[in-house]
C-alpha cells in the first residue's frame, strides 16, 4: 500500500511489459504513437494571463502534420488555469468598473485592485475555453480532437484505469487526437516528494508525471516534453559554463545541477527528469526541448521526430566512445598543443604517416577490399563513386609522395610573419599566421581524403573532425588509426578525431561553438546540403564542378584531342573533369571537329548537344536537358559559340567558377580568356585535370574552393591558416598620440624575417 495525499491506494502492475526504447535519435522517425506534453510556460503568455495563441497554433499544425502521416498523436496540455485567469480577471474588472462608475466615479477606476484568484476556480473557468480553442485549431486540418480530464485517483482504481485505457485506444483507432489534462478544478494541493517512488508507479501531481504515466500506460514510442528551456544543462541554464546535454543516460542525474522552476507550472526540471527516466524505464523514449523559442518552436516537434539534434534525448544505450562534442573539445585542445610544437616536429609526424601508408599497405588494401565488396553486393553506389572508394598500391604511393611534399613545405607555415610595422618608437606590430582552429571535413566514398586532410591539418596546426561515408567505414578506420599512431610520437594523438557516432550531417553543422570551418568533399548535393545546414559556421568548397574547355579557331590540331581526352576521360568522376565542350562555330564540319567527335566515340563518351549545336545538325545527339550539368561520368555536352567573348559569357552563365580552359595558339585571344573568365582556375592549352593541390605542388588539398573569400582554387596549407596581430610596446598609451601628446605615429614598414626555404 502506498499513499498519495491522505488517501491510500494499492500499486497495480502496469498493463504493459517493459518494452525497449529507441537507442538513437535517428530511430525516432519510426515512432508510431507519440505523446506531446505542453508545459505551462509553452502554452501561456509571458504575463501568465491568457494563452500564447501563435505558439499554440504552430504546435497544432505540427501535431496535425504528424497525425496525417499515420502516427497516433496525444497531447497532454496545461493552460486551463492561465486561460481561466484571463477570463475571471476580465469578469472581475468588468464588474468592478460598473460598481465604481455607479458609486465613485470614473476617476477611481485606475485604483481598482484585482483579488488573488484561486487556481481551481481559474481551471474551472478556463477548461472549456481551452478545449474549444484546440477544437477550432485542429478543425483547420480536418482533424477531430477529444478532451479527457483525469486525476491521480483515476490511475489507482483498476476499473478507471481500464476505462481510460479503452477510451484512449478507441479515440486513436478513430484517428482522433486525445487532449488530456489534469482536472485542476478538483485536485488537492500537491504533496512534496509523493511521486516517482519505484519503477511501476508514478503519482500524478503535475502534467509531467501525467504525461509519463500516460506514455507508459499507452505503450507510447515517444514522449516529447516541451518547456521554456532548451533541455538539460550540466549546470543551471544561463550560467557561464552551462552546456546543453545532448543525450542523458540513467545514472547521470547526479552530475546535473537543477535550477529554479519555470515562471509558471507545477513541475520544475527535476520533476521532468524524474518523469522522463520513469517513462524510459517503461520503454518510452523521451526528449525534453524548448517549445517557446521563436526560431525553433515552429518546427521543434517535427524536428525531434525526424531525429534532428534538438533538446535532450534520454537513452538507455551509452555509446562506447566519446560524444561528438567531447571529440570537438579534444580536437580543440589537441590543436593548440599541436600548434605549439616546433615545425620540425609537425613535419616529423607527417613523414611518419607517409611511411605508415606504404608500410601498412596490405592491411589498408584488405580493409578497402571489404568496403568495395560490401558496396558492390548492396548495389548502393554508382560506378563513379565506386571508383572514388577504391584504393590501390599506386594511389597509396602517390598519397605518400604528396604527404612528404606537405611535410617539406610546412616548415614555416604556422607563426610566419607576413607583415611588420613600426607604429612608433619602441612600438612594433607584427601580423603572423595561426591555425583557423577546428576543421570539420565531411567526405563521401573517398578514403584517400583522410590522410591528405589529416596531413594538411597537422601541418597547419589545426584540430580536425572527420566524418566519412559509411561505405568506406573499414578503410577510414584503419587510416585514422595510422594517423593517430603518427600523432602519438609527439603526444598529440587526439588532434584528429573520426566521428563514428550516428550524428546526422545537419546536426554536426550546428556545432558552431566547437567548429570553425566546414569543408565538404563529395557530391554537389552533399555540398549544397551542408551549405544550407551550416548555422554560423563558414563552409569552404564548391557545390559543382562544371568545367569547360573552349576550342578556338586558332587551336592546334595536335593539342586539341590530347587535352580534351585527358580532361574528360582520364578520371571522369573528378570534380575537375570536363563537362561542357565549347567549339567555335567556324570549326564545325572541319577535319578538326571530326577528329574530336571520333576521339570521344572511341573513348565511349556519350555526347549531349547544346541548343545551338543541335540546330546545326540534321541528326543530332540527344539535346541536353540543362547546360548547367555535372555528369561525373563518360558524358559531356557540346555547344557552339561565335567568339571567345561568347565563350566567356557562356561560362559565366552556366559554369560553377571551378576550372575553365582555352585551347588556342593566339596569345592575344588566350590572354583575353585568362583575364576575363571569373573562375578559381583558368588555363591555357592545359587539361582541366591540373586543377589539383598535388599537381600545383601543394602536396595535397582539402578541397577546391570556388568562393571569393579567404582561399580560392585548390586549398592547401595556406588556405587553412588565418592571422593574428602581435603588438610589442613599452608603456605606450593612446593619449600620448593626441594632438598635444608627446609621441607621433611612424607607420614604417619593417623587413620580414627570412623564410626557411629548405
From TrEMBL:
CDD domains: AAK_P5CS_ProBA, ALDH_F18-19_ProA-GPR. It is found in: Mitochondrion matrix. It comes from the Eukaryota. Residues 324-588 form the Aldehyde dehydrogenase domain. It catalyses: L-glutamate + ATP = L-glutamyl 5-phosphate + ADP; L-glutamate 5-semialdehyde + phosphate + NADP(+) = L-glutamyl 5-phosphate + NADPH + H(+). One of its GO terms (molecular function) is glutamate 5-kinase activity. Its main location: mitochondrion. GO terms for cellular component: mitochondrial matrix. GO terms for biological process: L-proline biosynthetic process. Pathway: Amino-acid biosynthesis; L-proline biosynthesis; L-glutamate 5-semialdehyde from L-glutamate: step 2/2; Amino-acid biosynthesis; L-proline biosynthesis; L-glutamate 5-semialdehyde from L-glutamate: step 1/2. InterPro entries: AceGlu_kinase-like_sf (IPR036393), Ald_DH/histidinol_DH (IPR016161), Ald_DH_C (IPR016163), Ald_DH_N (IPR016162), Aldehyde_DH_dom (IPR015590), Asp/Glu/Uridylate_kinase (IPR001048), G-glutamylP_reductase_CS (IPR020593), G5K_ProBA (IPR041744). Keywords: Amino-acid biosynthesis, ATP-binding, Kinase, Mitochondrion, Multifunctional enzyme, NADP, Nucleotide-binding, Oxidoreductase, Proline biosynthesis, Transferase. Its EC number is 1.2.1.41, 2.7.2.11. Residues 32-290 form the Aspartate/glutamate/uridylate kinase domain. Coiled coil: none annotated. PANTHER family: DELTA-1-PYRROLINE-5-CARBOXYLATE SYNTHASE (PTHR11063:SF8), GLUTAMATE SEMIALDEHYDE DEHYDROGENASE (PTHR11063). Can form homodimers/multimers. NCBIfam families: P5CS, PRK00197.1, proA, proB. Bifunctional enzyme that converts glutamate to glutamate 5-semialdehyde, an intermediate in the biosynthesis of proline, ornithine and arginine. In the N-terminal section; belongs to the glutamate 5-kinase family. This is Delta-1-pyrroline-5-carboxylate synthase.
Amino acid at each position: 500500500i502506498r499513499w498519495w495525499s491522505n488517501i491510500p491506494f494499492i500499486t497495480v502492475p502496469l498493463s504493459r511489459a517493459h518494452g525497449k526504447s529507441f537507442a538513437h535519435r535517428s530511430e525516432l522517425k519510426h515512432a508510431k504513437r507519440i505523446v506531446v506534453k505542453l508545459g505551462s510556460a509553452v502554452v501561456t503568455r509571458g504575463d501568465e494571463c491568457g494563452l500564447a495563441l501563435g505558439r499554440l497554433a504552430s504546435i497544432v499544425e505540427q501535431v496535425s502534420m504528424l497525425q496525417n502521416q499515420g502516427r497516433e498523436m496525444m497531447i497532454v496540455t496545461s493552460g486551463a488555469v492561465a486561460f481561466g485567469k484571463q477570463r475571471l480577471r476580465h469578469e472581475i474588472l468588468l464588474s468592478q468598473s460598473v460598481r465604481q462608475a455607479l458609486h465613485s466615479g470614473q476617476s477611481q477606476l485606475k485604483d481598482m485592485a484585482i483579488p488573488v484568484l484561486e487556481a481551481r476556480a481559474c481551471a474551472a473557468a478556463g477548461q472549456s475555453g481551452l478545449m474549444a480553442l484546440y477544437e477550432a485549431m485542429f478543425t483547420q486540418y480536418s482533424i477531430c480532437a477529444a478532451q479527457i480530464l483525469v486525476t491521480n485517483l483515476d490511475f489507482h482504481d483498476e476499473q478507471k484505469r481500464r476505462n481510460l485505457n479503452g477510451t484512449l485506444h478507441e479515440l486513436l483507432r478513430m484517428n482522433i487526437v486525445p487532449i488530456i489534462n489534469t482536472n485542476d478544478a478538483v485536485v488537492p494541493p500537491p504533496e512534496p516528494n509523493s511521486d516517482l517512488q519505484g519503477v511501476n508507479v508514478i503519482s500524478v501531481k503535475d502534467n509531467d508525471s501525467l504525461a509519463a504515466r500516460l506514455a507508459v500506460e499507452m505503450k507510447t514510442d515517444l514522449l516529447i516534453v516541451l518547456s521554456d528551456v532548451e533541455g538539460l544543462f550540466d549546470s543551471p541554464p544561463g550560467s557561464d559554463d552551462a552546456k546543453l546535454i545532448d543525450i542523458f543516460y540513467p545514472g547521470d542525474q547526479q552530475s546535473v545541477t537543477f535550477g529554479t522552476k519555470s515562471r509558471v507550472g507545477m513541475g520544475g526540471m527535476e520533476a521532468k527528469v524524474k518523469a522522463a527516466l520513469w517513462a524510459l524505464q517503461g520503454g518510452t523514449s523521451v526528449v525534453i526541448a524548448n517549445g517557446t523559442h521563436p526560431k525553433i518552436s515552429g518546427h521543434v516537434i517535427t524536428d525531434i521526430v525526424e531525429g534532428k539534434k534538438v533538446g535532450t534525448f534520454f537513452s538507455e544505450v551509452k555509446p562506447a566512445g566519446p560524444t561528438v562534442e567531447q571529440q570537438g573539445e579534444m580536437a580543440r585542445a589537441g590543436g593548440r598543443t599541436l600548434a605549439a610544437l616546433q615545425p620540425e616536429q609537425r613535419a616529423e609526424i607527417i613523414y611518419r604517416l607517409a611511411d605508415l601508408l606504404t608500410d601498412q599497405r596490405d592491411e589498408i588494401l584488405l580493409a578497402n577490399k571489404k568496403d568495395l565488396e560490401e558496396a558492390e553486393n548492396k548495389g548502393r553506389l554508382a560506378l563513379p563513386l565506386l571508383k572514388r572508394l577504391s584504393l590501390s598500391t599506386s594511389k597509396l604511393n602517390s598519397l605518400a609522395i604528396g604527404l612528404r611534399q606537405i611535410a617539406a613545405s610546412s616548415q614555416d607555415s604556422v607563426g610566419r610573419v607576413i607583415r611588420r610595422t613600426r607604429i612608433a618608437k619602441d612600438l612594433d606590430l607584427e601580423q603572423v599566421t595561426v591555425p583557423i582552429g577546428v576543421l570539420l571535413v565531411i567526405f563521401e566514398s573517398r578514403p584517400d581524403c583522410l590522410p591528405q586532410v589529416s596531413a594538411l591539418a597537422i601541418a597547419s596546426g589545426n584540430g580536425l573532425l572527420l566524418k566519412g561515408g559509411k561505405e568506406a567505414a573499414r578503410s577510414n578506420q584503419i587510416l585514422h588509426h595510422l594517423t593517430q599512431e603518427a600523432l602519438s610520437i609527439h603526444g598529440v594523438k587526439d588532434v584528429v578525431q573520426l566521428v563514428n557516432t550516428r550524428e546526422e550531417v545537419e546536426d554536426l553543422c550546428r556545432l558552431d561553438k566547437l567548429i570553425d570551418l566546414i569543408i565538404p568533399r563529395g557530391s554537389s548535393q552533399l555540398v549544397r546540403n551542408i551549405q544550407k545546414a551550416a548555422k554560423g559556421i563558414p563552409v569552404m568548397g564548391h557545390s559543382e564542378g562544371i568545367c569547360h574547355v573552349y576550342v578556338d579557331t586558332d587551336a592546334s590540331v595536335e593539342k586539341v584531342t590530347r587535352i580534351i581526352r585527358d580532361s574528360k576521360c582520364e578520371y571522369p568522376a573528378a570534380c575537375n573533369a570536363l563537362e561542357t565542350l565549347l567549339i567555335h562555330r567556324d570549326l564545325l564540319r572541319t577535319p578538326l571537329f571530326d577528329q574530336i567527335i571520333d576521339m570521344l566515340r572511341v573513348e565511349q563518351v556519350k555526347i549531349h548537344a547544346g541548343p545551338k549545336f543541335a540546330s546545326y545538325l540534321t541528326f543530332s545527339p540527344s539535346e541536353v536537358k540543362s547546360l548547367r550539368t555535372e555528369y561525373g561520368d563518360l558524358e559531356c555536352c557540346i555547344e557552339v559559340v561565335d567568339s571567345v567573348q561568347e565563350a566567356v559569357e557562356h561560362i559565366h552563365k552556366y559554369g560553377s567558377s571551378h576550372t575553365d580552359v582555352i585551347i588556342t595558339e593566339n596569345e592575344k585571344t588566350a590572354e583575353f580568356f585568362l583575364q576575363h573568365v571569373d573562375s578559381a582556375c583558368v588555363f591555357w592549352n592545359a587539361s582541366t585535370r591540373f586543377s589539383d593541390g598535388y599537381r600545383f605542388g601543394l602536396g595535397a588539398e582539402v578541397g577546391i574552393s570556388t568562393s571569393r573569400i579567404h582561399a580560392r582554387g585548390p586549398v592547401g596549407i595556406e588556405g587553412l591558416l588565418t592571422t593574428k596581430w602581435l603588438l610589442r610596446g613599452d608603456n605606450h598609451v593612446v593619449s600620448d598620440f593626441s594632438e598635444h601628446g608627446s609621441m607621433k605615429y611612424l607607420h614604417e614598414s619593417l623587413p620580414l624575417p627570412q623564410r626557411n626555404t629548405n
